[in-house]
Amino acid sequence: MTSPKPARGRPRDPAVEKRILAAAMDTYARTGWAAFTMDAVAQRAGVGKSALYLRWPSKEKLLVDALEEHSAPVLAPDTGALETDVLALATGLLRYFLDPTGWVAVRVAVDSAVETVEFGHVRERIVRMHNQAAAEMVRRAVRRGEFPVGEPVEPFIQALYGAVLMHVLTLDPDGREQARDRLEEHVTPLVDFVLSRIRRDDRPARASGSRGSTRRPPAGPR
Amino acid sequence: MTSPKPARGRPRDPAVEKRILAAAMDTYARTGWAAFTMDAVAQRAGVGKSALYLRWPSKEKLLVDALEEHSAPVLAPDTGALETDVLALATGLLRYFLDPTGWVAVRVAVDSAVETVEFGHVRERIVRMHNQAAAEMVRRAVRRGEFPVGEPVEPFIQALYGAVLMHVLTLDPDGREQARDRLEEHVTPLVDFVLSRIRRDDRPARASGSRGSTRRPPAGPR
Amino acid sequence: MTSPKPARGRPRDPAVEKRILAAAMDTYARTGWAAFTMDAVAQRAGVGKSALYLRWPSKEKLLVDALEEHSAPVLAPDTGALETDVLALATGLLRYFLDPTGWVAVRVAVDSAVETVEFGHVRERIVRMHNQAAAEMVRRAVRRGEFPVGEPVEPFIQALYGAVLMHVLTLDPDGREQARDRLEEHVTPLVDFVLSRIRRDDRPARASGSRGSTRRPPAGPR
Amino acid sequence: MTSPKPARGRPRDPAVEKRILAAAMDTYARTGWAAFTMDAVAQRAGVGKSALYLRWPSKEKLLVDALEEHSAPVLAPDTGALETDVLALATGLLRYFLDPTGWVAVRVAVDSAVETVEFGHVRERIVRMHNQAAAEMVRRAVRRGEFPVGEPVEPFIQALYGAVLMHVLTLDPDGREQARDRLEEHVTPLVDFVLSRIRRDDRPARASGSRGSTRRPPAGPR
DNA sequence: ACATAAGCGAGACGGTACGTCGCGTCTTTAA
DNA sequence: TTAAAGACGCGACGTACCGTCTCGCTTATGT
Q: What is the pLDDT of residues C184-193, one digit of tens each?
């Protein structure tokens, strides 16, 4: 705000910032919080510790920023129909959770929910980011008449996200491995379950054959 | 069978174990992970560090056990009906998650899901413990005819637990504070949502093919 | 004093004492003070720590006793002449110092000369033990007229012992190794040097003028 | 040559080194080995333990260096005559051995003579340091014609040093105390004894063959 | 051209917790 | 009562990180 560049002295190398963030994510993903060391990050990034502490006041803040840099990928695409939207979202989410990088988001969110502040509002930001994507998806569905107007949105989103999260949590290491190759197979039952309430509510008759079959709503129209 | 007891030498004092676990929980609850020091725990328990390391190989394991000691309360009671059972379970779960003690379980489970072994089967144990309680609840419901026989159980449980978990994750510190006094108010919408599919089942008609069958989007027009 | 054996309860196993002492010497000789552990000694002796602490109040005392058990071997034999007596004594001493077990005596003596008491009068006992043997040898020499009557004994003994000690101290590990097979070769120059004063004295000619002069006994006979 | 100085990073503060060595000597002198704690030294020096372990790999090495810093004073001065040189050397040596600081050198040398490597060449350094001083003294004497050319030097030095060492070893605590105030009184008989062989050398006549040559006892009559 | 200022890699530094190990004591069972 | 086994309180060990602090060097701007 003061000016674009009244800076005196040597300007910061923007590449350094990137290398640090990448190294931070990499280190955390590989070794977890326990081995997430400032020295380690610095070394992997090929920089000195000064470069780190010039930019972030603490280890936590660094991790937070690194995380944010890499957490966009799970957005809900517009496929034209709620069912496919949800399936796509859940699949992306599952993939994200199964990826070390993505799981970091969960860990930080969980940690930040209780720890001695420090983490600031990381949790909030992460949660909001995902919530917005999901909310947008719902809004489209409402516009299309696929999602009943009065239906509360939050429980729907929380059940969806939560189901995928719990599902991952339930898997053992082998299961996680395999799940990466069979995302839809794992995700479908969950989506199916979560959608059943919504589906039922709209149209009287519906032929979405198969497993979703007759969660056919009370015949009456709305 | 439980104890062949060929034990030689001085037996471990069970009181020491208790004092340590209590001190651990106390210390953690008071000061959080940052100040959760082995020396501190030992001192508060009035024991030497040897007593700690004789029983637990690391700080993490100790914390895990300490919290396990306090995680029984979240079992699903038999209230006589599925709806009330689920409400009770979810309420207990919410209370548990809002308690620092309980939240640790989540953190540990999340951490252990990816960490380089280390935590080993902690996640497994925690998950199974909860799964069993829930499964028992469902079994009762099936016996009473409240839960359709073919209905897959896992998605139901995962959606339920996950919804509560995500709900807590969504709350900011203030929200968490308030939620402690309004458990049902927070839990009801979630339970309502999750149960909607089950409730519908007064009608037996159901043709759901096997799980995962059609990941093909509903053939219906758009 | 109360009686030879009015002892009640199980009597002490005398074999235990021996095994402990042997194990103590062995352990110390092998690994030095650093690894001279009560647990290690107990284990090597195949006994419990109680057996140790029933007999010795501390690690130091145990070592002291163990040491004493094994420090007799260097006594001055009566070969009939001073020169050969001294050579034999010095040779035995050198062998003793080159043996791990014997060197322990030196170490303990040196340690005990300054440490916070604890070691008690070990040094004293060790020193006295050797002194007596040497004094006896000198007495014989005096009787035979080989050792001048007025000649002070202590400097002679101290120079003799000290020379051997320093000689060992000067050797590097290899040198020590070799010295074990060439005891006399190493010892002769030292004996030679130390004895030169004595030898000379049978002969009257003497020119020790200088300040040291008058500790020479008044020329008169005694 | 001494320092190519390609040093990178912050250079070590030489003041820290000094403070640590001083604190080490101080702590040891005050409390003895038992209370010679790394933490204590660090605290007294006002530094962190890192500063200690950055320079010395273990407590022992630190002590060794600390005492080496204080062991210069026992060099043989050039007084112009062998007799006074030796007296001065022996007096200095006695004072050194009576000082806790100096005695440590002996302990370390004795320990290192057998220990499983560990101390490495400490013994060697200490021994050499003293040997050189004494050798220099002898060289001067030879130049002045006070010390016969063929006379073996090592036995002389070893007898001298050894006599003083044994003398100290013989003293009980009280004796040590008193000896500090009467150094010459204690040292003179020893010096006198050791020098007697050399002194005699106004008379060249000598029958003891060269050093190791005749380990056969002197042919002389008995 | 050259001083001034900041960035940067390297690593020393004061702290603090870790997990290990040893001491000397205590508590059990078996002999 | 001794003995083996081993738990226990205590406290030092040597290691690892944190976040700060110099170093020497590099890279820009301002005069």
A: 999 999 999 9
